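Hey, can you fold this?
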Amino acid sequence: SSHFGSSRLAEGRAAHPRFWTAHRPLPPPPPPAAMPSRSAMALRQSLRRAAGALPQQRRFAAAAADPVIARAREMQKTPYDPAKEGKVSAPNYVGWDKEIDEGFTKLQTGPKKGGRPYAEICESALDLIGFTPMVRMSRLRAHLGVECELLGKCEFFNAGGSVKDRIGKRM
């Protein structure tokens, strides 16, 4: 006997991947004295139905997917035929060169106008109203013991946690 409660489980049946989903043990029934016998029978019958419903649904889903999986495996094993598929080519990319750099530079649009000047790091949350805040993380820097300026950008954050922060500050 094993800790699963049956020696047959220890002999290899539990190794099957669907064993636990298809053959779940029913929960123990409540003690007979706890409820009338009719209620106990109805509860047991309901538990049996519930335990059997899930594996049937899974079997249905697996049966529906089997033709798709079979077709995918068939396509995977099909060798490449240039006469049917055409020539497949890819550029010989060896790294960033002068031509790529010129094309990249030509496509740049330049800096955006307006907005928050990120060189100014605020000391108070009130200074952050209306902007995506950047916060100096001095306590975390000290805790980690790093020798740099540690900043955090708080996306989707306003000082008071509301879209009404701007009007609230002016009031």
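Oh, and this one too while you're at it.
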Amino acid sequence: MDLLMDRFDLEEDLENLMNDVNKEIADKEFEKLFLEEMSRGLPELRGIKHKIDFILRAIIPNRLAYKTNPSKAEEIQRQVNDLLDKGAINKITIKYRHPIPKLDRNFHERADIHLPNSNKAGKDVNYWAPPSPDWVKINVDTACKLSNSRTGIGVVCQNDKGEIIVAMIRKLDVFYEPLQVETLAILEGLWLTQCLDLIFVQVDSDSQNSINLISQEYDPSHQPNVWVDDIHMCAINFIDILFMHIQRSSSNVTHRLASTAISSNPNKIWISRFPNWLTVEAR
């Protein structure tokens, strides 16, 4: 009986001891939960890095923009200003928030992007010629109908064997100037090719002005085309890309696609199955 009472007393003492210890710990832990003096203003910026992958295999083109360290940001801005003074980059950061390289005559040597009138671009093509092995050729063309303010875009992508990989038509319920819509067609072709993870691309267009416009250095007073900047940025995502001017006779297939797009209700993309006339005429 005495032993049982001693056990009860011991358990009671242990319970009281634990309660005292927990109370003491709790008092020490939360006694300064709220600071007596709060600092004014926002805390200092820290070097936080973010990596956001909204799209599978998507690459964030400008990871430096996600760093907020003031000293590093100041150094980057100094370097950008230095490059601007030297004329190495274009001052068109309003849309992209980061500098875009100039597409001058030396840019294709640094980034494997070949511009028109360069040695590799060659002369105008008046017949269909397959691209180099492992390359794909994108042929784009447009059609406009002023009466109902509609514009059609046609895109055909073929491999080095002449086989169609993908084709697309897109209808726009708006009338663009020829130079604007021809440039937009090139951009649509690049976007479509980029979705297929193709990395060696040759872009053919019968619009000499559009090809020349893409190769010119940025000049706000002489380049009122909103899609040229997008083409420059999209071209960087390819390992090698070549822009070429072709004769009108080499764009009959894509021109028919563009004309079809004007009267078509939905936009269409063909990947495995193609219209019979398209397969025949593309040969």
